[in-house]
Known about the structure:
Layout: H1 8-23, H2 28-35, H3 39-47, H4 54-63, H5 68-78, E1 85-88, H6 94-104, E2 107-112, H7 123-132, E3 161-166, H8 177-193, E4 196-201, E5 214-219, E6 222-230, E7 233-237, H9 240-255
Parallel strand pairs: 2-3, 3-4
Antiparallel strand pairs: 1-7, 2-5, 5-6, 6-7
Helix pairs in contact: 1-5, 1-6, 2-3, 4-5
Amino acid sequence: MSIETPRPAVIAVAHTLRKIREQRGLSLRHVARMAKISASKLSGLETGGRRQNITLVAYLLGIIGAPIETLNHILEIADHGNEPDFLDPSGRDENLLRAAFEQLSRHVFEWSPSLFPRTLRSAEYSDAIQKSGLPEGDPAVKGFIPAAACTRPTGVSEPLHSFLLGEAATRPGVCSPEVLYNQIEEVATVSKLMPISISVVPASYCSTGLVEPFTLYEGHTGAIAVVVKHQRGVAFLTNKISLKHYTKTAQWLRSGRTDNPWP
Length: 263
């Protein structure tokens, strides 16, 4: 893990602080003046680049009028600011943290062994999963693809977001063949228009259930975070052992992908 990479809990606190301030229509300089701190210090707190003091965070949340429930939630998260890993039991902070790590990444790798990942699901496909009763039956993500994948950063030649699917994801199961066909057609079209890549790993190389879904966020010097589903929620890991393990796993999965993305 890069030493500059903020801890997951720090990122959650920072981005929530900024989100609430912006929702209140308050400028950074205005809040800084009210709190009697410099604008640069507040900016550092909102980006996760400055060490967070729980007392100051609570004071700032009070100034911007954060609801008491949100204030208590953020202060509870702030207690884990020095820990390399963070477990989000309710999924309340998942989208915020994923978006934050995506902004810090040069490349995002996502492995989905049995279903199309949420960020690639059409409304029709997502509806079919919900009706199936599977736990992954979340609504389709608005925009269909990761927001950061809509633009290719200067100097980046490879896709910003790489999706690797297990062969089971391309076979009828939770939806009808027609729904699956439409889903594949939409994804194939998007992959030609956006800086993303989509490949499939055959079941003969990696059988369903061998490697659980995960998302690996990679910076210029290597992996900075990995996200995995946990029995008690969603885990955001930045410890070196986990990053090394999932980096090797991603490399192994990449080596098994087929030339034809739709077997």
